[in-house]
Amino acid sequence: MKAISVHNLHKHYGQLHVLRGLTLEITRGECVILLGANGCGKSTLMRCLNGLTSHDQGEITILGDSLTHLSKPQLRQLRRKVGVVFQQFNLVQNVSVFQNVLYGAKGQQRFGLLASLACLATHELRERAMASLERVGLAHKAHADCRQLSGGQQQRVAIARTLMQDAEIIIADEPIASLDPKAGKEIMDLLLDVVSERRLTVLCTLHQLELAQQYGDRIIGMKAGQIVLDTPRQQVALATMQQLYQGDVRVDQISPPTVDNAALPTS
Predict the structure, then answer these.
(1) Where is the ABC transporter domain positioned along the sequence (predicted)?
(2) E strand intervals along 53-181
(3) pLDDT tens digits, residue range 32-44?
């Protein structure tokens, strides 16, 4: 079964045509690395996939459900199955690490926001939160405020919060962009280990091409709102990926020849 299926997706912001007939499929349990220069439409695609932004044309199917035909309550229910790891962590800085991880359960029907507060959380929730922190190596920081942690540690907290969500799909939008190279590699190692253990589906955007060569099952490249490269990771060369960041490139100039032989609009 396909975890994510996108067909002929278009998105405009005013006169700006951001996504231009984009089509892709991601199988359950697959890890896909998405590459592309700033402004190519990666973030817009991510927002469309988790329902934060509506698309203008085409179809998005997540875990068998078409976003176009879902009511708002059904969309909220589906979004609980999609965990998001952000570049800027999106943690509440002045509360504890433990509380931030508990917030990951607030979208689950039987819990909710009040039930995910540390002072009201059930024994089950508290145990799950500590287990999630243990998994990311931060159980000893449970009672520290998030603002006291390093960037790498805060991203570990964000991953632990996603584990609390019990998501089936992880969308990671440049999760290591604000980290130094050593911390970035540690976070990627952790993230991919966790999703492998739980057999989750992952779509992760990266800018670090050397790291992109080390992670995931497939490399997908975007340029000017289109998919121009889609190939197994082991078969893509660094020089091929670098072409995604060059201007005025046509699709038929990108190798290997696994892309459509159509003109690529310029950025």
Answers:
(1) 4-249
(2) 57-62, 65-66, 82-85, 169-173
(3) 999 999 989 999 9
Q: What angle do CA 263, 67, 47 make, to 5 degrees?
A: 60
pLDDT interval class at 249 (50, 70, 90): very low
Closest by CA position to 118, among listed 134, 130, 110: 130
Give the pLDDT band (50/70/90) at residue 113: low
DSSP 149: S
Domains of the chain: 2-244 (3.40.50.300)
**177 three-class SS:** coil
CB atoms within 10 A of CB 108: 15
Buried b (16+ CB within 10 A) or exposed e, 75-104: eeebbbbbbbbbbebebeeebbbbbbbbbb
CA distances from 213 to 69, 139, 229 (A): 37, 31, 14
Strands (DSSP E) contained in 46-118 are 57-62, 65-66, 82-85
Residue identified by tokens 């875990």 is: 63
Question: What 3-state class would DSSP assign to 175?
Answer: coil
pLDDT at residue 261 is higher than 50: no
CB 75 within 8 A of CB 67: yes
pLDDT digits (tens, 9 = 90+) for 209-229: 988 999 999 999 999 999 999
